[in-house]
Fold this sequence. Notes:
CATH class of the domain at 2-15 and 76-147: Alpha Beta
Distance between the termini: 27 Å
Number of strands: 4
Strand content: 5-15%
Number of helices: 3
Amino acid sequence: MRIKILACAAGAWAVLAAPLSLHAEPAGRITGIGGIFIKSKDPKALKAWYRDVLGLKLEPWGGAALSYTVPGHPPVVVWNPFSQTDDYMAPSTREFMVDFAVDDLDAFLVNLTKKGVTILKRDDSDPTGKFAWIMDPDGTKIELWQPKRK
């Protein structure tokens, strides 16, 4: 399993480190992730948790808009399907996981711990940066990633 995770992370790092293509792409293509939309048994409570615990700034329309222009933010969003039998998203039984890039994993985890959030696991040995995993109140596993600084 460790090899699979490192291979996935190494692949993502290769994408992050590769120069962007300068040639024009044809029209009619995907240009990025436009949003993440999830169902919840209690959307109001889940929004409050993401606001109060993770610090997401909620907009008047109810969701959060995360900017790619924040210093230190990775230049790409990784999309990667996993096998139905893969346990990378365990203990969650949801079919997806959200990965949030953070600027300082140590400080972020201190804040989460103060708010009573259980840190499932932490990994500072990955070549792409530091990782930690938590669960939200709906049982969705959240990956927190501090990208390795160049």
